[in-house]
Specification:
Number of helices: 8
Number of strands: 25
Helix content: 10-25%
Distance between the termini: 24 Å
Strand content: 25-35%
Structural class: alpha+beta
């Protein structure tokens, strides 16, 4: 059981993802399906509330029922809620005692035809989900023959816990690098080292850029540009800090319309434009929210299919700004943690996932380990 309720004084986000466009394949609707996500709660508390998002949907989405374990999540006392396209909704405050370290299961039942266009692909040791065809919201386990694992997190956006005043949230903002494992390893490192008053909140979407976004279904899953994303995703109760590791896609995506009609050379920014975008779109807004802001350097890209000397020079120049700009409270040098010291444009041995852009699992652990301890205390 959790501690007495008089110790709990404020709401703090204890889990969160971004919400973006899902990949626009042939089938983008589901019917009579149950989603289930196990979530580790890092704070003790006595109430929970849940944010569900249809931010990138183009049709209303009706959640027929949602539960935390077997307890109903309600919306204005109703067990069902319809979320209009482009909107988010927050549940009622649910009396629910949790103990730090406990895992709860969030289940969502979608009875009617539902556009599955609002969700995010997330991987990592703490980021797992399942779905089953049929209404199994009250079932302890899904039928094996009707269920599969998934790393797509649909509609569920943020979980807040009413907890002690000492607890806070650390936001990790970025693209596919952050949508993969290092935030989970950071959360595990914090827990294993006894830093129990910080929750790691991931706000990451694969393929996103600071300055541009794609308005075509081929690359729609690459998500919203920074100007649109950041103010929405920084809506995090109890947040004190944000780590920003973003910008590599601005550098590697443009190839010219003769190669790809959706990736013109005109999309290629200057390093100065990337710096200005980071300052004007990210740092200023975070400061307005009273957050400390930490830069994260961009990782090596040697061997990636669009690698060339010009892009490498841009990456290095932008990284130098991230390391030295007084606009930040400090820099987390992810690049230094994973690069080959004898060939710094490339990943170190065993740190490349194989595509020369994304780190391996051991490299993600190294990224988590290089975050300064003061951010976890």
């Amino acid at each position: 059981m959790s501690e007495p309720s008089n110790n709990f004084t404020k709401w703090v986000a204890c889990w969160g993802n971004a919400t973006s466009f899902t990949d626009r394949k042939e089938c983008i609707y589901a019917k009579d399906i149950t989603l289930r996500y196990p979530i580790r709660i890092v704070f003790s508390g006595n109430r929970l509330r849940f944010r569900f998002s249809n931010l990138t949907g183009t049709e209303p989405v009706t959640i027929s029922a949602a539960k935390v374990n077997r307890t109903s999540i309600t919306f204005g006392a109703s067990e069902s809620v319809t979320i209009e396209p482009g909107k988010e909704t927050t549940s009622d405050e649910i009396p629910f005692c949790v103990t730090a370290g406990e895992t709860v299961e969030i289940s969502i039942y979608l009875a009617g035809y539902t556009q599955m266009n609002a969700g995010t692909l997330i991987t990592g040791p703490l980021s797992k989900g399942k779905y089953a065809y049929g209404n199994f919201i009250d079932a302890e386990k899904f039928p094996v023959e009707l269920s599969r694992n998934t790393n797509w997190f649909y509609f569920l956006n943020t979980i807040d816990v009413f907890t002690e005043d000492k607890n806070r949230a650390l936001v990790c903002y970025g693209d596919s690098i952050t949508a993969q494992s290092w935030p989970d390893y950071l959360a595990m490192r914090a827990w294993d080292n006894g830093f129990r008053n910080v929750a790691v909140i991931r706000r990451a979407v694969s393929g996103t850029r600071i300055l541009r976004q794609y308005d075509c279904i081929t690359y729609q899953a690459y998500g919203l540009k920074g100007e649109t994303r950041f103010p929405i995703e920084l809506n995090v109760a109890g947040a004190t800090d944000v780590i920003i590791q973003h910008g590599i896609n601005d550098i590697i995506h443009p190839v010219g319309v003769e190669t790809n009609i959706f990736r013109p050379w005109s999309d290629m920014p200057t390093v100065e434009e990337m710096e200005q975008g980071t300052e004007n779109l990210y740092i200023k807004h975070a400061r307005e929210l009273g957050l400390r802001v930490w830069s994260g350097t961009l990782l090596p890209i040697y061997g990636w299919r669009t690698y060339d000397s010009r892009r490498e020079a841009m990456r290095c120049e932008f990284n130098e700004w991230l390391r030295t700009s007084p606009l930040f409270d400090g820099c987390i040098d992810f690049d230094k943690a994973v690069r080959n010291p004898e060939k710094p444009e490339a990943f170190n041995t065993d740190f490349d996932s194989g595509d020369h852009l994304h780190p391996s699992e051991v490299a993600y652990k190294a990224m988590a380990d290089c975050v300064m301890s003061e951010l976890l205390m």
